[in-house]
Amino acid sequence: MSLLNASSLGLIDLGGSASASSSSAVLEPGRRSPEELRALALDAAQALEGKPAEEIAKWATDTFGARFCVTSSMADAVVAHIFSRVAPGVDVVFLDTGLHFPETLKVRDTVARTMNVNVRSIRPRMTVGQQDGEYGPRLFARSPDECCFLRKVEPLERALSDYDSWATGLRRDESPTRANTPVVAFDAKKGKVKVNPIAAWTQADVDRYISRWNVPVNELFKKGYGSVGCWPCTRRTKAGEDPRAGRWAMFEKTECGLHV
Ligand code: SF4
């Protein structure tokens, strides 16, 4: 791959030095430094571009072992399923915001019951009631960035402290903001390696995988939702809209902060 192409896919980390943990910090024995993680990610991004999702998943679990997890929004369980085949027993982190649709929690429970993975539900520091008491009710309607920080971003950072690398289900065809998603990248802010094994998949690829392996899918997709998040910030999509158009539809906001 040319440097130009690597750059356009976000494979070249331009984020400067890792801020999450500096190279001068004392590392536990056997832990990789941020510089080592960055070098691993840059090599893998070029080597694994265009490879099957299973190969990318195997590289991730072979490389990071117990210091690796899958994150899932439980919109569907495709990525969790891929990893369950490649690395049975892998940790799957679910951010339980307290504001999910029942259909989403049903997928989470089905995954925990039927797949060979270890589902970890991570909760915010405050319940919804405690947050209402401290910030006022319906923070999501007044300051969704603040609400997402409290209920998603901080819990993810807390969960990821146990790992050097994590996988997501991000795909390039989901929205313009995700069009340059690399299959592997170094997240300089977190100081960790982010793996996106299905970045190059289309919705048709996802549908084929679901059908072939009978993977659990959120029932909301059959009810007109193109993308599924917390219930206060998700609406059905209309014909012709991109799948994520129903997220934070009242705001300019397009991402919850987990992937920026
Ligand atoms: Fe809050 Fe909405 Fe973000 Fe969920 S998606 S954490 S309800 S702002």
Can you characterise this structure?
The protein has helices spanning 3-8, 34-48, 53-64, 78-86, 102-114, 128-135, 139-142, 144-160, 203-213, and strands at 68-71, 90-95, 117-122, 165-167, 184-187, 192-195. It is of the alpha/beta class and 260 residues long. Strands 3-2-1-4-6-5 form a six-stranded mixed sheet, with helices on both faces. β1 (68-71), α4 (78-86) and β2 form a beta-alpha-beta unit. α3 packs across α4 (78-86). The longest helix has 17 residues, at 144-160. The protein is globular, with a radius of gyration of 18 Å. The two termini are 25 Å apart. Mean pLDDT is 88; it is low at 1-24. The protein binds iron/sulfur cluster (SF4). Residues 97, 99, 140, 144, 147-148, 151-152, 229-230, 232-233, 256 line the site of iron/sulfur cluster.
Q: Termini separation (Å)?
A: 25 Å
Helix content range: 25-40%
Largest sheet: 6 strands, mixed
Instruction: Note the run of SSEs as H and E.
Output: HHHEHEHEHHHEEEH
Bound molecules: iron/sulfur cluster
The strands making up the biggest β-sheet line up spatially as 3-2-1-4-6-5
Low-confidence stretches: 1-24
Beta content: 5-15%
Q: Compute the gyration radius: what is it?
A: 18 Å
Number of helices: 9
- Name the average pLDDT: 88
Query: What global shape is seen?
Result: globular
| SS content category | alpha/beta
What's the total count of β strands? 6
